[in-house]
Amino acid sequence: MTALVWLIPCALVLGFLGLIAFLWALRSGQFEDLEGAGWRAIQDEEPGPDPDPK
Amino acid sequence: MDRAVTQIATADEASGSEGRSTRTVSLIIENMQCGACMGNIERALRGAEGVVSARASLAAKRVAVTYDETKVDPLQLIEVLDNTGYRAAESVGSADEAASARADDLLRRLGVAGFASSNVMLLSVSVWAGVASDMDASAQGLFHWLSALIAMPAIAYSAQPFFRSAFAALRSRNLNMDVPISLGISLATAMSVYQTVRGTEQVYFDAAITLTFFLLVGRYLDEKVRVRARGAAENLIGLKALAANVIGVGGAVRRVPARELTVGMKVQVAPGERMPVDGRIVSGATHVDTSLITGETVPRHATMGTLVHAGTVNLGAAIVIEATATDDNTLLAEIARLVQAAEQGRGRYVRLADRAARLYAPAVHLLGLATLLGWLIAGAGFERSLTYAIAVLIITCPCALALAVPAVQVAAASRLFGRGVIVKAPDGLERLSEVDTIVFDKTGTLTRGEPSLSNASEIDDRTLAAAASLAVASRHPYSRAVVRTARERGLAFAVADGVVEEPGSGLRSETPRGERRLGSAVWVDAASAGTDGAETSSLWFREGSASPVALRFDDALRSDAKTLVSELRAAGYRVCLLSGDREAAVRSAAAEVGIEEWAAEVRPDGKIARLEELKGQSCRVLMVGDGLNDAPALAAAHASLSPSTAADVSQTASDAVFQGESLAPVGEVLKVSRAAQRMAFENFAISLGYNFLFVPLAVAGYVTPLIAALAMSLSSIAVTGNALRLRGRRLALGKVKAR
After folding, report:
1. Which residue of A has its CA nearest to B62?
2. Does the pLDDT value for residue B496 go beyond 80?
3. B142 to chain A: closest CA residue
4. pTM for the structure as a whole
5. What is the CA radius of gyration of chain B?
């Protein structure tokens, strides 16, 4: 039974970390453009702060 | 614009020394379609002077631009995008922001409920296992206290939407599904706290928080669909021209935002531009693409005195129009209003689950009361009687009932999704299942919505390639059809050197073998060459002094339109055709697919009137249409479908959208929706069956937390399992019930 003393807090802390991560992702707009994010990954050039006119 | 909302002080880190003069606007970009567009738009905006940052969102078709107010204004930004080939408009939407904030709020509550329910379940399973083995009372008490600590704040926060909705319903003396839900959740929590303090085992935190979690999932999906629909409606603004060249008294041209235009102003419209206002042509002659408003594929010839509508595209030469209606008074704005009005009417539809709730809620509450009174009379003491009554309410808390319809709808929607149909409206399937009359639009619905070369087999490859090399320089729908046919045949051609487009006539270029011309019969001089008289739906091509070749176009029917119509009629559906196109075109299309009831040259409000008439004959109408002119009818009909090529507004107004060239999805939607409705009734039967099994136990006082949790999950699993059968089954289009 003594194992419970650290197992339960462990489970709670891990779950809580997950919740915090989710709320952070929500707040920072990770779910705002689910279609576009996929396209950004395969774009040839990263549209960075200084555009490169060809 | 609402500056208070959009003003953001990002000046410090991004724009350096300029102080607090940066603003952020949201620009709607109608034709942002792929990842490449996204990059182009962001690059173009970042290259513009005074822009601090630009971030495009493909899902919303919008870009958020932060810019320096002293250097640039939104109109200039829109013009930058216009030069890159993107049509932009400034977003007005405060309603839109509120709705997406609501969806985010639900998601946050969902996250909290998910965290709490998984941890409480972990503890509960241990307790149940402990009952069978040797867990002592102190450990059980500790687990109950921990559950209470996690579940109470989580329920207080996450279940608020249900409490609020139930409270609002009660205040207006109504009953909805949220009333028994709220009562079940709050009573289960309150009693669990009381029993935890007393140290007994009647603790139901797990049931309460899991129920909250599942119900929130459904609520969130519902809200998300609505946010997307609203966003698409606002994007309609992007269809209007945003700035116009106004000709002043002295002949000077100045650029004016479209919303500042007034009646009587003279406006110049360049080829390829959309009309900013409704107006009469006072100078010039051109062809106008009116497909957006009327559903006609053939561009209309417009000369002095012709009335043109805002939102239509000038295909030919530059013209000058005198404004007769502006901004909110244009036909386009009128259509948007009709859509809104029609949608409000549909909002009165009562969903099956709510109808069930109206019967279910009072029955359950009376049963709880009867249990309490029964045990009191039997002399069980108030506290024990109350415990049993609350157990009855927890067992009957409509988890399976609340899942009965959504589970079927998710299964039906995923089956349909696999066949290229996206169901948008939450109650769409229910309404689709009740349909007995189907009204089709012609252009873009029964037909493909774009002209195709009908006599391609008579034209040899060399001539076609030569014509395509001219046509590729023009954006006229006929030219595009020529280019498409040439590409389909795998011909190689490049833009001919020195192609000149003569507005209103055609294209020409000089080659060593003489002049090539592609255009109207007069332009190519087809009559003098001794060929047949010119038709409206044709182009002519001539190379040097060779005899001209005719290119004929028609709007081909979708390949299975005829099969579908005969199938529907065989099943007993009444099938009609309502089109804004010319009579001859509609008559031949109706004859070809076998529809007897048809009407041509119907305006948007005429379509609504026709639908009302059908409604008066107690028909339940399914409208299938794509154009902007169909949008009000789509919203007004009992149920509606549109192809994915439809205007955004029409897609928003319809219950489901189907993809691809085939019309078969229309039949599939009808089959699946009717099967889904049958299954929803089966699910109600299952969940009521469970209640008949467990309610007597609860009334008799034999319900333990384990039985409560079992009853809830088993009935939910049974209901979901039944719904999943819908996915693989073969369905037939059964006969329509006669009314």
Report:
1. A33
2. no
3. A4
4. 0.64
5. 32
